[in-house]
Design a protein that fits this description.
By secondary structure, the chain is α/β, with parallel strands linked by helices. Helices cover 42% and strands 15% of the residues. The longest helix has 27 residues.
């Protein structure tokens, strides 16, 4: 068979659901193999033309965040991965597995025995070392294939490397000539059985339980544990057993704990500093800077990675690191706690702590609601009211893909989310993934309405025509809600913070802040068969969401432009 067929067979054996691609001239062997597979009735993998490289990578990431199954991303030569570098880096730091395949050339037309892809490769499509060398810092692992016989085995190995903890994207450079070669498909006929340690030893679990049981003022801090719904269930159970308050740190990527739960609290650095025990549950940056650790607290880390080797600096020291999949560790802690006499004897004190935390929760979130309602009639629309109104209007089964900056805290705390996999967000620097994440989530959960809550600045960084085009072509009706304050408010706030009496403050000239004239964002939807809405009246937010939900039933995407004041909630 030719190399394209061998690649597709390896992809099929690896259980890949989708090949997400931004087309390139080197992929005819794979397209031909896909056409042959379709002719024989194969249903997987399905091919999705993403129209932009960053969309392909981020859409794959969104799908995998829901399913935990890595997907295949097919990009053009070196230019494709370079165009997707920011989204690849995001997948690396968010620990999202996927396999990127990028085209290359081996012979530059000098070998008459193999296919020649054309002179453009010599002129402008290749770089020294190819995609693997150029993008090595943005992926977990990268290599290039030197022979067609290695196509299948390398792809299957790459899938396993991507999944190996800590998970992440991997990249393979594949010469066009290898894909055109006649090769023997290497199928070992059996799956690799890998026995990997999944549990922490009992002595360490008992040591952790003793610290937890004895703590008078414990706090749990989390960031990523919501990536595994099983871990969230066990996390909730553990915290309920001991009455442990839970706070999410600055950039949670998931719904890590039901935000309506009485143990869920607003992140308060003073409360963290006063704690005598910190449970770091899949939290990369529980406080900042790392050197300002709580003075009198023991620290227990629960994560499948320690000490975060992908970061150039981390700086957090802990008393006990329980390194294993968090769902497993949390399950062990719950099981042993239920059998512990020490825990049973302290039950009354844990219940009292739960009651105190419930009061804190109710007071804080009650005041948030009251504050929002004070601004219910403000025009332009006050962001506090806008987020509160969205929280009232979005159905319980809806999913949020969030990409704002200054409004992130409001969205997390004022839109009540209690179901796992109902909130997804970026956690890395760099905007431009919110719409693509929403597409990937919708691909994985087609029966749930998916709302991309996105700042107007972030919206400009997204590949908007490509995203909306994919939504229209593949019947993925996402609903973009744009927080339109007409400026890069985060940048403007920093300018005034660091130069409170400077020229920018006195003249009112804020370079790098304004997005103007403000576009009428609703019209993006019409170009792709959807409906657009512009909301300037605070009383019309609920109506706009109801209209979006009606469009959902018709498989139509929507873009809702919320025209906001420039109030900064930070």
């Amino acid at each position: 068979m030719h190399g394209g067929q061998a690649m597709l067979k390896a992809i099929e054996r690896s259980g890949i659901d989708f090949i997400l691609s931004s087309p390139g001239s080197e992929w005819p062997p794979v397209w031909e193999a896909l056409a042959e597979a379709a002719a024989r009735g194969a249903t997987k993998p399905k091919y999705i033309n993403c129209r932009h490289e960053a969309v392909a990578v981020a859409m794959a990431a969104g799908y995998t965040k829901v399913t935990h199954r890595p997907q295949m991303v097919m990009l053009h030569a070196t230019a494709g991965p370079l165009n997707a570098a920011m989204t690849l880096r995001a997948a690396l730091h968010e620990r999202t597995p996927m396999v990127i395949i990028s085209g290359e050339i081996a012979a530059y037309g000098e070998n008459s025995k193999v296919a020649d892809p054309g002179g453009q490769w010599l002129h402008d499509l290749t770089d020294l070392g190819g995609s693997p060398d150029l993008l090595r810092g943005c992926v977990k692992w990268a290599d290039r294939i030197s022979s067609g016989e290695l196509l299948g085995p390398t792809i299957e190995r790459a899938v396993r490397i991507a999944m190996e903890p800590p998970a992440g994207p991997v990249l393979i450079g594949i010469p066009f000539e290898c894909m055109m070669e006649q090769v023997n498909d290497i199928d070992h006929g059996k799956a690799n059985e890998v026995a990997r340690a999944q549990v922490v030893d009992d002595a360490s679990i008992d040591k952790a339980l003793s610290l937890i049981a004895a703590a008078k003022n414990p706090i749990a801090l989390t960031e990523h544990v919501g990536g595994d719904p099983r871990a969230v269930e066990r996390f909730v159970e553990l915290c309920e057993l001991f009455g442990i308050p839970v706070m999410e740190t600055y950039r949670p990527a998931f719904l890590n704990f039901p935000r309506t739960h009485p143990l869920y609290l607003h992140h308060d650095p003073k409360a963290v500093d006063a704690a005598d025990l910190i449970l770091m549950v899949d939290a990369v940056t529980p406080w900042y800077p790392a050197s300002k650790a709580p003075k009198n607290a023991k620290v227990i880390s629960i994560a499948d990675e320690f000490p975060n080797s992908r970061l150039p600096y981390w700086g957090y020291n802990v008393d006990l690191a329980l390194v294993a999949p968090p769902a497993s560790t949390l399950g062990q802690l719950v099981k042993n706690a239920k059998a512990s006499e020490q825990v049973a004897g302290n039950r009354a004190s844990y219940q009292a702590r739960l009651a105190r935390t419930r009061e804190q929760h109710d007071n804080y979130f009650g005041k948030l609601k009251e504050d929002a309602q004070k601004h219910a009639s403000d025009t332009p629309i006050d962001p506090r009211w806008a987020v509160h109104a969205l929280g009232q209007a979005l159905p319980a089964n809806s999913v949020i893909s969030e990409e704002t900056t200054v409004y992130r805290g409001l969205i997390q705390e004022m839109i009540p989310r209690s179901q796992t996999q109902s909130y997804f967000a970026r956690v890395t620097g760099g905007l431009g993934v919110g719409l693509s994440y929403a597409l990937g989530v919708k691909l994985a959960m087609p029966d749930r309405p998916v709302f991309a809550l996105i700042g107007d600045g972030a919206f400009h960084y997204n590949a908007v025509p490509s995203c909306l085009g994919v939504a229209e072509e593949y019947g993925l009706p996402i609903h973009a809600v744009i927080f339109n304050n007409g400026r890069y408010l985060s940048m403007e706030t920093s300018l005034i913070k660091y130069f409170p009496d400077g020229a920018a403050k006195t003249t009112g000239v804020h370079f790098g802040a304004e997005i103007g004239p403000r576009p009428d964002y609703q019209h993006y939807a019409k170009a792709h068969g959807g409906e657009g809405f512009r909301v300037t009246d605070p009383a019309e937010i609920k109506t706009a969401i109801e209209q979006a939900l009606r469009c959902e039933k018709e498989k139509k995407l929507t873009v809702t432009d919320l025209v906001l004041s420039d109030f900064n909630p930070r």
